[in-house]
Write a structure and sequence with these properties.
The chain has about 375 residues and is of the alpha/beta class. The chain folds into 2 domains: about 1-175, 3-Layer(aba) Sandwich (Rossmann fold), CATH 3.40.50; about 175-365, Up-down Bundle (Dehydroquinate synthase-like, alpha domain). Helices cover about 50% and strands about 20% of the residues. Helix 1 crosses helix 2 (about 45-60) and helix 5 runs parallel beside helix 6 (about 175-195). The structure holds nicotinamide-adenine-dinucleotide and zinc ion.
Length: about 375
């Protein structure tokens, strides 16, 4: 079991374990953290069918009682309605017990569970057991927890870190290839913003990764976790301007997700379009060489958008954009690449330029 630490002040640091053992190890690990007698495990029916029995047995062997709670398998579960249902259920069983939460799932389960943990009784401990590549490399680390509003993603949230993250590579064996690619989008992001070596590794080993080669997955999960842990350790609450670089691709990406009502695009697909857009904007502004633009967009082509995924509605995207918190007086803040492994945060991107780039992308994806 490999360990990477997220270093925070006031003894809030926590480990990310990267492993390929079975759940017995997780049972023992959690027991050693003495979190409580009862685990309230948030998951969905799909993941429950695959992994609940093993997890229950592992917890049982270590004297921990499991209470599974299944949410709908959709971004729509990151909602106020689901939040209230979940805390109501927790409070109904939280009688004479020492309860902790477990997020067994992808980013949707993780974000909701984290927000519930942050707010129920002003905060109770929780463990992240990420089951998607995206959650293992990104969403389970860093303490950003949130639910959505119809008007925008992650508009209600809190910073609240898990007690530990347990990333098991074996869980990715059942993950559909579309979801592997979706997680890969965040890994490519790390390569572009901070790590030319990781970027080159991805260029050279694309096929192996898509074939779920164990060592390649282990490398990209470890390297990504290390980068995310580092960025979060330096700028935990995004107050120093450094954590902002993780938003590369997310300004356009979030607008797309909002415009699509979170329905037909994965998060990775949306931010892929966002990253391509940001690369093209950087190139138009003379910040990025053609050769780097080509390498970035070529690698990003790995994450193909689903054939009939979107009839993208340009007006809806532009509406979502103008409600973005980074949109001030017709200018917008964006993370732009300047070379492989380096980005800048630009504060004054004219909305006209963004509109032009989005229009181009919409034309390409809508096939005209
Ligand atoms: N908090 C953060 O810092 C952060 C960072 C990035 C993304 N996010 C959020 O994460 C969410 C996206 O997460 P996601 O991409 O993991 O999507 P997801 O949680 O919707 O999971 C994707 C799909 O994979 C299935 N699945 C999960 N694990 C599986 C497994 N092991 N085997 C088979 N199927 C499995 C799920 O049932 C689901 O259908 C978005 O809401 C996004 O905003 C948060
Ligand atoms: Zn993301």
């Amino acid at each position: 079991m490999k360990q990477i630490d997220v270093i925070l002040t006031k003894s809030r640091s926590y480990p990310i374990f990267i492993t390929d053992k079975d759940f017995s190890e997780l049972g023992e690990t959690i027991k050693n953290f003495t979190l409580g007698s009862d685990a309230f495990i948030i998951t969905n029916a799909n993941i429950h069918k695959l992994y609940a029995d093993d997890l229950r047995k592992a917890f049982n062997r270590n004297g921990i009682q499991s209470h599974f709670y299944k949410i709908k398998d959709s971004e729509q579960s990151k909602s106020v309605t689901e939040y209230i249902k979940t805390v109501t259920k927790i409070s109904s069983i939280d009688v004479k017990k020492k309860l902790f939460l477990v997020a067994l799932g992808g980013g949707v389960v993780g974000d909701l569970c984290g927000f519930v943990a942050a707010t129920y009784k002003r905060g109770i401990p929780y463990v992240q057991v990420p089951t998607t590549l995206l959650a293992q490399v990104d969403s389970s680390i860093g303490g950003k927890t949130a639910i959505d509003l119809p008007s925008g993603k992650n508009l209600i949230g809190a910073f609240f870190h898990p007690v530990l993250v347990y990333s098991n590579i074996n869980l990715l064996k059942s993950l559909p290839i579309r979801q592997i690619k979706s997680g890969l989008a965040e890994v490519i992001k790390y390569g572009i913003i901070l790590d030319p070596k990781l970027f080159e590794f991805l260029e050279k080993n694309q096929q192996k990764i898509l074939n779920r080669d164990h060592d390649s997955l282990k490398y990209i999960i470890s390297q990504s976790s290390r980068i995310k842990a580092y960025v979060v350790s330096v700028d935990e609450k995004e107050t120093k301007g450094f954590r902002t670089i993780l938003n590369f691709g997310h300004t356009i990406g979030h607008a797309l997700e909002t415009a699509n009502k979170y329905s037909n695009l994965t998060h990775g697909e949306a931010i892929t379009m966002g990253m391509v857009g940001a690369c093209e904007i950087a190139s138009e502004l003379g910040l990025l060489r053609q050769s780097d633009l080509f390498r970035m967009t070529s690698l990003l082509q790995l994450i193909k958008l689903p054939e009939k995924a979107l009839k993208i509605d340009l007006k809806a995207i532009l509406d979502a954009f103008s409600r973005d918190k980074k949109f001030i007086h017709g200018k917008i803040r964006m993370v732009l690449p300047t070379r492989i492994g380096h980005v800048i945060v630009a504060d004054d991107i004219p909305f006209k330029l963004i509109k032009k780039i989005i229009q181009k992308q919409v034309r390409i994806y809508n096939g005209n």
